[in-house]
Each structure stands twice: as C-alpha cells, then as structure tokens.
Specification:
Radius of gyration: 22 Å
Shape: globular
Helix content: 40-55%
Largest sheet: 7 strands, mixed
Strand order of the largest sheet: 3-4-2-1-5-6-7
Low-confidence stretches: 172-176
Order of helices and strands: EHEHEEEHEHEHHEHEHEEHEHEHHHHH
Distance between the termini: 13 Å
C-alpha cells in the first residue's frame, strides 16, 4: 500500500550566516513547491536578507506569495496557524514555542526535521536520519544532514540545472558560450572581458585575505578581471582602498569590476561566466560545485576553529577526484584563503592554483557524477519523510 507524500511543509529560518541559511531555505522551499507540488510556507526572521536574494519580496508584508511559496515573518509571540505535515527547523535555529505547543496538541503529529549544515565529516553518515525526540514534548524529531558522500542527504539541485548550465556554456555552435558571457557583462554595464583574461567571481566574508589575492593578481603573468558583487566585501574593499563609488578599477594586471548584488536565480550565470569562483557559506558553495569551474571556499568561521575541521574534511573527499599534485595545490590555496595557521603564503599558492585549472575542471566532472549518484537534497528529503509517514 503506497502512501501519498506529505503535501504541506513549513520551513523556519533564523538568519545567522547572512545569505547562506536563507539561501538554502529559500532554494529548498522553491524546489519543493515547483518540482514536488508541495504547499510550502517559509517563515523568515529577516525579510530584508531574503529580499536581496529575491527582489520580489516585500519586507513589510505580513503574508505574501512569492514564486509559489508563502513567505511570512518569523517572530516570537506571533499567532501561528495549524502546523504543516512536515516542519523544517533550518540549521537548528529552533521553532517558536507557540508553534511547538500546537504541534504537540495536534491529533496527527507533524514530522519535525532539523535540517543540519552541510558537512563532509565521516560521522555524518552515522547520524543522518536518526530520531531525537524533543525533550520537553516528546514529539518525534529527526536530524537530516546534507552531504557529499553516500549515507548523507546529498545537496540541492534543481531538475533543469545542468541542462541550463550546458546551454549557457555551449561550444558546439562556435561562439555560443562567448555570446552568453558577453551578454551577461553587457546587462551589468560592462564590456566583455579581454580574450586572454582570467575572470574571477569574488564572494567572500570581509575578513578574507583579499589584499594578498589582489597583490598576487596585480603582479601575475595573465590579466585578471574580478567581479565583486556589492555587499559587505565590496564595501570593505572600497573603504580600505579609498575607491569611493567607482565601478571599475585597474591596478597592474588586475581589473576590479563592482557588479550589482546578484539575485539567487541569476547567481548561477555569474559562476558559469567566470573561470574561477570564490564562494562563501553554504548555498554558493554548492552552486560552485555544480558550475564545474575551479572554485575556492571561504567557510563560515566558528568558535575554537571548528570550521577548519569541516574545511579539511571536504578537501579530503574532494581531493579524491583530483590528481595528487592538484589536490595539494587546491588544499594550499583554500587553507591560505581561510587563514589557517601554517598554510603556505597565498602569494605562492595562487600561481600554482592557476596552473592546474584544467586538472581541476576534469576532476569536477568526476565530482559531479558522484553528487548525481546521491540524488538531490529536496527529492531525498521528501522520500525520507514519505517513508516516515508510511510507518505511522
């Protein structure tokens, strides 16, 4: 006897890591609604942050429907409607006490899923999907771990993502990919990049060692064009370098281009139009893996350097698809970019990284196949919840 998948979903997101938490929550909500026919309500405590990712959002609206998702402000003490079939506590930010009370009073108890942060650490597969009843109410609760290895929940990927990427990057029709890239720059008020230039997209936390990167690029053998979305990093660069509101700055072999902050639906095209992508947090980190271009992850810093363990764990797994020397080069630059003690100087790590870009692209094709074998996070999560419903 088959059981229909859960129809109604509530996702609660407290914004901690700026765009990472809400980026994942918003992408998951949209995919559940668009590809799985779910009725999704997304509760967010910082609507202005969501608006940066989706300009359609009205930060003053109490209730609104955006791209097939009901968006509501998440506030303590608010009156909440009856709970959904599945309740997602995004990244363990917690649920409102009044909502939990309604869950406990429901005749049919909702499924409570704590969606954890992405990690490649080996212990993830041992804890993925395990029950952990809520200590005060006894409500059934399950921990769900995104991941990049078997035994995890996989990562987010829309059904048409790779087809859209391939269409943008097409080379069968001579010049097709170049024309798409040229159109991307023109839409943002810039000429296309020089044919011999290396293009970077630079999305990082303001404390990243961007000065060292810029210095290495200025003195490098090849011209570099860096696309920097407006935001905290761009503001820090402008202030430190006294650039005012300049949109374009040339210094040595490096050209800085400050571009408008890219809404989530357009972010993939920035990654596809770039030769190397610097990404941060979780959502952009996953998109860079699907983009197929060499990338550098700026991980969210945690107390007692806990993030360094997560960083090294991913490098260990990712390094398996790269030649040994390329894996070493990638590790050196990532550690330097994240300010890990005893990392090699960025000035020496950067030229080596540039020299092994082709090997990285080949490794990323293998990496993509590994991720595809895991299925996508939204589909895996729905399957997991359907299985739990069937057991009730």
């Amino acid at each position: 006897m088959s059981t229909a998948p859960p129809r109604r979903w509530d996702i609660f997101c407290r914004v901690i890591d700026n765009y990472g938490d809400i980026g994942v929550s918003w992408r998951l909500a949209r995919q559940l609604a668009h590809e799985h026919g779910a009725a999704v309500r997304l509760w967010v405590d910082q609507l202005p942050v969501l608006r940066a990712l989706c300009p359609e959002v009205d930060v003053n609206a109490a209730v609104q429907s955006v791209q097939g998702v009901r968006v509501l402000p998440y506030a303590e003490g608010a009156d909440y409607p009856p709970p959904a079939d599945v309740v997602i506590d995004a990244f363990g930010g917690g649920l409102p006490p009044a909502y939990i009370a309604q869950m406990a009073a429901s005749a049919v108890k909702p499924l409570w899923i704590v969606l954890e942060y992405l990690s490649a650490e080996s212990w993830v597969r041992e804890h993925h999907g395990l029950p952990s009843p809520h200590p005060q109410t006894g409500l059934p609760r399950y921990f769900y771990f995104p991941g990049v290895a078997p035994g995890s929940g996989g990562v987010l990927r829309e059904a048409d993502l790779l087809a859209r990427r391939d269409a943008f990057c097409a080379t069968e029709d001579a010049g097709a990919g170049v024309n798409d890239r040229r159109a991307w720059w023109a839409a943002r008020g810039f000429d296309d990049v020089p044919a011999d230039a290396i293009t970077l997209s630079l999305f990082a936390y303001p404390h990243a060692p961007w000065r060292e990167l810029f210095s290495a690029c200025e003195q490098g053998a090849s011209p570099v064009v860096a696309a920097i979305p407006e935001g905290p990093l761009a503001a820090a660069i402008r202030e430190a370098c006294r650039l005012g509101q300049s949109r374009r700055v040339q210094t040595g072999n490096l050209e800085l281009r400050f571009v408008p902050f890219v809404p989530q639906l357009d972010y993939d095209t920035l990654l596809w139009a770039s030769d190397i992508n610097f990404v941060r947090g979780e959502d952009s980190f996953v998109r860079a893996q699907w983009a197929g271009q060499p990338f550098v992850w700026h991980i969210y810093s945690q107390a007692e350097a806990a993030h360094e363990v997560k960083l090294r764990a991913f490098l260990d797994v990712f390094g398996e698809v790269l030649p040994a020397d390329s894996a070493r080069v990638v590790r050196n630059l990532w550690l330097a970019w994240n300010g890990v003690a005893a990392a090699p100087p960025l000035a020496s790590a950067w030229p080596e990284f540039l020299a092994c870009r082709q090997a990285q692209r080949q490794g990323l094709r293998l990496w993509r196949e590994k991720l595809l074998e895991l299925g996508d996070l939204a589909g895996n999560l729905q399957h997991f919840c359907s299985g739990l419903v069937a057991k009730k």
